[in-house]
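Lab manual, section 2.4: Encoding a predicted structure.

Procedure: take the sequence of the chain (80 residues), apply the prediction step described in section 2.3, and record the output as structure tokens. A sample record is shown.
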Amino acid sequence: MHSIRNKERGRKKLMLKLPALRDQLRRLSNDTINELFESYELATSALDRFSSNSEANSKLIAEYEQLCSDIEAEVEGLFA
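Recorded output:
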């Protein structure tokens, strides 16, 4: 259940982040993209938690920012 919810949240976040791919992201469903959607949701949620914590490690925040960027690039690469 959480997996489906995470997948859909990740899809919606990527649709906002990558508006040029919005229609393709809305329609596409396969194991690869679904794993990326779920990973993106988990990574962005963690980044939000770390960023809102005044005691968070800046190196950890940078790692998660990079992870989110890497997932975005991988998704864009699927449509190139």
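Check your result against the sample. The longest helix spans residues 31-52.
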